[in-house]
Write a sequence for this structure.
């Protein structure tokens, strides 16, 4: 038998002084009472009258106490698993991203190497490039006009070594003309300033990296006779002994020397060396002594100089 | 309590848990604990890997930039330096190889220990004098 005191165990809202008891859902299933009680099921809002004797069944919305506990445990575990697996996936993706970042960094360095190397090779060794530049005129120029695919064998080897795990890989460096600016005065045949883009691309596996730089290329005749009197000798460094330059007028008009050889501060010897061999390096130094460009290729009385490449951020 | 009917308590099943219930509950808890424990191990390992990898990459890039700024001819052909960071020690090795008159290949290798083994992070670049 059960009385009001016993009911206190099951129902927090049980009141011994009152005949109305509020049973929490899921707490009672079948009870025997010594006298009549009235139960209110809060979930259903329906009152039950319990008469003395067996009350066969009370139906409440929630399941039993242990069922609830199991559901709570399952719920907590579910939350732990969901968040746990989510976090582990996030960490795994971070590790993967870092691996890719390393590859992107390596690819980026290879592309910078390729641009440096291609400019270096052009500086010394490319008659085709010079001939193409000589033939470009502002009238027939359609932009962007890709004129040259550069070679960079050392950078290619580097790429092969770094990305050897990928089957197919490719490195391409192309030079395209973006603007042709003719010289203002005293223009000789073929002389011009060009704004050129250097585009380097690397594909390896799923990696596709692109670097773009812009250089100013000046193609100018080397004039020894007219401005020879204006030429000066500037000591640049211990190895680069001298630079013969013309005066300010030469920069304004685009006529300049820009001859620097590795040996000696003797202007005469420098000029002779420059005339004898195409494999020398030239410097273009402004009257204040600052090096403007340090790349030049002399061929058939012309010099080809490049400004330092300026990286263009990706669009 | 003596005037209470035991049958009611038995019917209500509020005496406790049976052995089978306890065993099943323990098994579920054990399985869950193993998974959660493995998750903790994985998370710790991943965090270490991420820290080591990003630090090594930063060190390699910074070393490369330093050589590029100073010029390859102004740096020793071989050099090695140790860095003690908050959680690990890193060794940075640099090697400068002359390719032609003005071209140099700079190789940077960052070595660190992870779970008892040496991990290397190499970066290479060709630069001009």
């Amino acid at each position: 038998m059960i009385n009001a005191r016993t009911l206190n165990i099951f129902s927090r809202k049980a009141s011994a002084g009152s005949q109305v008891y509020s049973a929490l859902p899921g707490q009672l299933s079948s009870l025997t009472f010594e006298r009549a009680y009235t139960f209110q099921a809060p979930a259903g809002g329906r009152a039950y009258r319990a008469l003395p004797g067996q009350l066969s069944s009370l139906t409440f919305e929630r399941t039993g106490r242990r069922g609830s506990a199991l559901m709570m445990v399952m719920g907590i575990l579910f939350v732990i698993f969901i968040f746990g697996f989510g976090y582990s996936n996030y960490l795994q993706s971070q590790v993967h991203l870092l691996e890719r970042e390393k590859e992107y960094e390596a690819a980026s360095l290879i592309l910078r190497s390729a641009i440096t190397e291609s400019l270096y090779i052009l500086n010394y060794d490319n008659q085709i490039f010079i001939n193409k530049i000589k033939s470009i005129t502002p009238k027939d120029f359609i932009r962007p006009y890709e004129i040259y695919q550069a070679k960079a064998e050392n950078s290619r080897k580097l790429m092969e070594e770094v990305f050897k795990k990928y089957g197919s890989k490719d490195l391409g460096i192309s030079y395209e003309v973006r603007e042709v600016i003719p010289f203002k005065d005293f223009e000789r045949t073929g002389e011009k300033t060009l704004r050129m883009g250097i585009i380097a691309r690397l594909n390896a596996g799923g990696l596709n990296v692109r670097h773009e730089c812009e250089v100013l290329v000046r193609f100018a005749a080397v004039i020894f006779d007219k401005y020879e009197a204006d030429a000066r000798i500037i000591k640049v460094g211990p190895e680069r002994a001298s630079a013969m330059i013309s005066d300010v007028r030469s920069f304004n008009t685009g006529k300049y020397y820009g001859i620097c050889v590795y040996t000696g501060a003797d202007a005469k010897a420098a000029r002779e060396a420059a005339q004898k061999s195409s494999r020398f390096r030239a410097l273009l130094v402004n009257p204040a002594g600052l090096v403007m460009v340090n790349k030049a290729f002399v061929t058939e009385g012309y010099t080809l100089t490049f400004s330092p490449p300026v990286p263009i951020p990706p669009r | 309590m003596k005037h209470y009917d035991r049958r009611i308590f038995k019917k209500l099943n509020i005496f406790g848990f049976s052995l089978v219930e306890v065993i099943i509950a323990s098994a579920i808890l054990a399985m869950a604990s193993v998974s959660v424990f493995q998750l903790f191990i994985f998370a710790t390992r991943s965090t270490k890997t991420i820290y080591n990898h990003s630090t090594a990459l930063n060190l390699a890039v910074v070393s490369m930039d330093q050589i590029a700024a100073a010029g390859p001819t102004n740096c020793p052909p071989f050099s090695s330096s140790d860095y003690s960071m908050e959680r690990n020690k890193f060794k940075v090795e640099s090697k400068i190889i002359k390719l032609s008159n003005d071209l140099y290949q700079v190789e940077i290798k960052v070595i660190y220990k992870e779970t008892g083994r040496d991990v290397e992070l190499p970066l290479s670049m060709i630069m001009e004098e």
